[in-house]
Design brief:
The protein is of the alpha/beta class. It contains 11 helices and 13 strands. The chain has a single domain (about 1-335), classed as 3-Layer(aba) Sandwich (Peroxisomal Thiolase, Chain A, domain 1). Bound molecules: oxa(dethia)-CoA.
Length: about 325
C-alpha cells in the first residue's frame, strides 16, 4: 500500500456577485433574515450566456490545482467529478473535463452525493492512489445552482442559500509514511432521501413524454425541495458523529485538530460544531458568508482559500466533514 496526499488545490467562482439585497428585490426576503439564519452575505451566480457551466468552472479550478501540484496535465491518470448540477443529464461532466483539458483517454468517474460529493470523491481517489492503481487523480467539485433555483418567494427557503462555483484537488502518491490522507469515513441514510431532493426529471416519476405533454409551470418537482429544520437537526448530529469517528480511527482527539473545514451549509451549523468540539475561531474555516452553499464545491473552495491564506501548514491535522442530501455524510482526516 502507498500513501496519498493532496498536492495541489484550486478554485474558481463566477465574477457576478449577488447580495442579499439583490435577492430582496426579486422575492420576499431580506438581508437580516438571511444573515441571521444562515450567515450568508452574498453568493456568486453565473450570468446566463457568459460561457460558465459546471464543467467549465471545474476545468478552471482544475488547471490551477494541476499547476500548483507541479505536474503536467498529461500526468493526470484519473478524473473524478462530483456535482448535482451537471451540464447534461448524461454524459456526466467527467468526460467533458477530459475533453476540455485535452488530456489522454484516462478514466473519468462522476460522483453524485450532493453536499458530501467532494468527500466521497476524495475517498475514491484516496483508495485508487493507496492501492497503486493511479498516481495522480484529479478530483473536482463544481456546481451551477443558480440556473435551477426558484427565484420567486415560493422558492426563498432554498434559493437564498445556494451559490455557484468550483474547487479542485490533485490527490497523488505520497512517499513519506506519516503525512497525507489518513482515513475517510462515509455514510448514507436513504430513509430521508426526499427531505432534500430534486425529484424531476428522474425516470421514477412519470414517462418523459407525459411530462412534456403536461408542460405544467406549477410542477415544483423540477425545483430543489428542502425540509430545512429537519435537515438542520440531522446535520448537527451527523457532522459530530463522523468527525468523532474519523478522530477515533486515528487515535486522535478534538484538541489535535488544527483546521476543520466543514461543508459550508449554514454558519450556525459550523458554529455549533466549533462549540461542541471546543475549537477556536482559527481552527474552523468558514467562507459561506461570501459564496453561500456551493454543495460539492464548498469544501474544495474553502480548503483552497484556507491554504492560500496560510491557515494550513505542513504537519497540521486537517479535518474535512460534510452532510447533505441523501442523506449522505462523511469525513476525511489529513496530516498535511
Ligand atoms: O447543504 C446541505 C445541507 N443543508 C443544510 O444543512 C441546511 C439546513 N437547514 C437550514 O440551514 C435552515 O433550516 C434554513 C436556513 C434553510 C432555514 O432556516 P430556519 O431557521 O429553519 O427557518 P424556517 O425554514 O423554519 O423558516 C422560518 C420562517 C418561515 O416563516 P413562518 O412560517 O415562521 O411565518 C419561512 O416562511 O422564515 C420564512 N422564510 C423566509 N423569510 C425570509 C423562509 N425562507 C425565507 C427567506 N426570507 N429567504
Amino acid at each position: 500500500m502507498f500513501n496519498s496526499k493532496i498536492s495541489g488545490l484550486g478554485y474558481y467562482v463566477p465574477e457576478n456577485v449577488v447580495t442579499n439585497d439583490d435577492l430582496s428585490k426579486i422575492m420576499d426576503t431580506n438581508d437580516a433574515w438571511i444573515q441571521e439564519r444562515t450567515g450568508i452575505k452574498e453568493r456568486r451566480h453565473v450570468v446566463q450566456g457568459d460561457g460558465d457551466t459546471t464543467t467549465t468552472m471545474g476545468v478552471k479550478a482544475a488547471k490551477i490545482a494541476i499547476e500548483r501540484s507541479g505536474i503536467d496535465k498529461d500526468d493526470v491518470d484519473f478524473i473524478i467529478f462530483a456535482t448535482l448540477s451537471p451540464d447534461y443529464y448524461f454524459p456526466g461532466p467527467g468526460v467533458l473535463v477530459q475533453r476540455d483539458l485535452g488530456i489522454k483517454t484516462v478514466g473519468a468517474l462522476d460522483v453524485r452525493n450532493q453536499c458530501s460529493g467532494f468527500v466521497y470523491a476524495l475517498s475514491v481517489a484516496d483508495q485508487y492512489v493507496k492501492t497503486g492503481m493511479y498516481k495522480n487523480v484529479l478530483v473536482i467539485g463544481s456546481e451551477l445552482h443558480s440556473h435551477g433555483l426558484d427565484m420567486t418567494t415560493r422558492g426563498r427557503g432554498v434559493s437564498v442559500i445556494f451559490g455557484d462555483g468550483a474547487g479542485a484537488a490533485i490527490v497523488c502518491r505520497e512517499e513519506s509514511s506519516d503525512k497525507g490522507i489518513l482515513s475517510t469515513h462515509l455514510h448514507s441514510e436513504g430513509e430521508h432521501a426526499e427531505e432534500l431532493a430534486l425529484i424531476a426529471p428522474g425516470m421514477g416519476k412519470r414517462w418523459v413524454t407525459d411530462i412534456l405533454k403536461d408542460n405544467d409551470p406549477e410542477d415544483a418537482s423540477y425545483l430543489p425541495h428542502m425540509n430545512g429544520q429537519f435537515v438542520f437537526k440531522n446535520a448537527v448530529v451527523r457532522f459530530s458523529e463522523v468527525i468523532i469517528e474519523g478522530l477515533k480511527a486515528n487515535n486522535l482527539e478534538a484538541k489535535d485538530i488544527d483546521m476543520l473545514v466543514p461543508h459550508q451549509a449554514n454558519l450556525r451549523i459550523s458554529q455549533f460544531i466549533q462549540k461542541k468540539f471546543g475549537l477556536g475561531d482559527d481552527q474552523v474555516f468558514n467562507n459561506i458568508m461570501n459564496y453561500g452553499n456551493t454543495t460539492a464545491a464548498s469544501i474544495p473552495i474553502a480548503l483552497t482559500e484556507a491554504w492560500e491564506q496560510g491557515k494550513i501548514k505542513s504537519g497540521d491535522l486537517v479535518v474535512l466533514a460534510a452532510f447533505g442530501s441523501g442523506f449522505t455524510w462523511g469525513s476525511v482526516i489529513i496530516r498535511w
